[in-house]
Design goal:
Blueprint: H1 10-17, E1 28-30, E2 40-42, E3 44-47, E4 54-55, H2 56-71, H3 77-86, H4 88-96, H5 105-119, H6 127-134, E5 141-142, H7 146-154, E6 158-163, H8 167-177, E7 185-186, H9 197-206, E8 214-218, H10 221-230, E9 233-237, E10 259-261, H11 264-270
Parallel strand pairs: 3-6, 3-8, 6-7, 8-9, 9-10
Antiparallel strand pairs: 1-2, 4-5
Helix pairs in contact: 2-3, 7-11
Length: 273
C-alpha cells in the first residue's frame, strides 16, 4: 500500500524542527577512488544511523544488562539486543505492505519489545520501566570515529541523518551522543521507510538540491543500492562489529558505491576535509 506523501515545504520543515539550514555551501568535488571519472558536485551528506553512526548492539546490550542487575533477573543482553533488532525489518514491512497504518519506529520498537520480553521470560516490569527500556534506542553510543569525522565533514557539507528513526528519537540521539547534524531528515517526514525511494528523494527535495548533489553514507549495501537507484551519490563505510564478533556485516563495497572509506575520518579525508 502506498501512503500519501505529506506536503512539507522547506520553510515549514525548518520552522518545525527549529533548525536553520543557512546558506548552502559551495559544491565540493569528489570522485570514487580510482574511478577516473570527472569530479561531480556533492553538497550534502546524509547518513544511515543505526549501525553506521552508532553502535546499537553494544548500547542496547548494556541497557538490558543494567536493567537485569537492577531488577534481579537473568538474561543474555546481547541475545536480547539481537532479537530486538531482528524485529526491525519485519515490523517496518507491516507498514510498507499496509498491514499497519503509518507507525513511528518508537511504536514499532515497543511492539517488538512487548513480544520478546515474554520470549525471554522477563516479567514484572512496570509500564514506566518498559517505556524507559524502549527508549534505549534514544541512547545509543556513537562509533569512536563518528563525532570527530562528522565534525570534519560538517565544515564542507550539509550533514544530516537519513534514518528510519522518528524525529524525536533522532533528536534525542543527537543530544545524547553529540552528533553535530545541521538538520534531521528521514522516514517520518514522508511516511515511508527505507528502502522506499520516497525517503531518499525527500533528502534532495527538502534541501532544495538535485539527487546527484546528495551523498548517502551507510554501512549497508542495500541502503546504498536503493539510494543509487534514486540518483544519490553513495559512500560505504564498513562497520565490522555492528552485529558482534560472529555477525555477518557488509565488508566490501560493490558497484553501487562511489566512495569506500574505512571510517568517517577516512571519508572526510577522501572528500577533501
Amino acid at each position: 500500500m502506498t501512503h500519501p506523501r505529506p506536503s512539507v515545504s522547506r520553510r515549514e520543515f525548518v520552522l518545525a524542527t527549529g533548525m536553520g539550514i543557512g546558506t548552502l555551501p559551495s559544491a565540493f568535488a569528489q570522485t570514487a577512488r580510482g574511478s577516473g571519472s570527472q569530479p561531480s558536485p556533492v553538497k550534502a551528506l546524509v547518513f544511515d544511523t543505526f549501525g553506521t553512526v552508532v553502535d546499537w548492539r553494544t548500547s542496547v546490550t548494556l541497557e538490558i544488562d543494567a536493567l537485569a542487575k537492577q531488577k534481579g533477573f537473568t538474561v543474555d543482553g546481547a541475545k536480547f539486543a539481537d532479537a530486538w533488532r531482528a524485529g526491525y525489518g519485519p515490523s517496518m514491512n507491516r507498514v510498507r505492505t499496509g498491514e499497519l497504518p503509518w507507525t513511528k519506529l518508537d511504536a514499532l520498537h515497543r511492539m517488538t519489545l512487548n513480544r520478546i520480553l515474554g520470549d525471554f521470560g522477563i516479567t514484572g516490569l512496570s509500564e514506566g520501566e518498559t517505556d524507559a527500556l524502549n527508549h534505549a534506542w534514544h541512547r545509543l553510543r556513537p562509533w569512536p570515529d563518528a563525532v570527530a569525522g562528522l565534525t570534519r565533514l560538517k565544515k564542507k557539507f550539509i550533514i544530516a541523518p537519513l534514518s528510519n528513526g522518528n524525529i524525536s528519537l533522532m533528536t534525542d540521539l543527537a543530544k545524547y551522543s553529540g552528533l553535530p547534524w545541521d538538520c534531521i531528515l528521514g522516514a517520518e517526514l514522508v511516511h515511508h521507510y527505507k528502502p522506499d525511494r520516497e525517503v531518499y528523494q525527500s533528502a534532495a527535495d527538502i534541501l532544495d538540491l538535485k539527487p546527484a548533489d546528495v551523498m548517502m553514507v551507510a554501512a549497508h549495501l542495500g541502503d546504498l543500492r536503493a539510494a543509487k537507484g534514486v540518483g544519490l551519490k553513495t559512500a560505504f563505510v564498513a562497520r565490522p562489529l555492528e552485529f558482534g564478533p560472529t555477525g555477518k556485516p557488509d565488508l566490501k563495497a560493490d558497484s553501487s558505491v562511489d566512495v569506500s572509506a574505512k571510517d568517517f575520518n577516512d571519508l572526510a579525508a577522501q572528500l577533501g576535509g
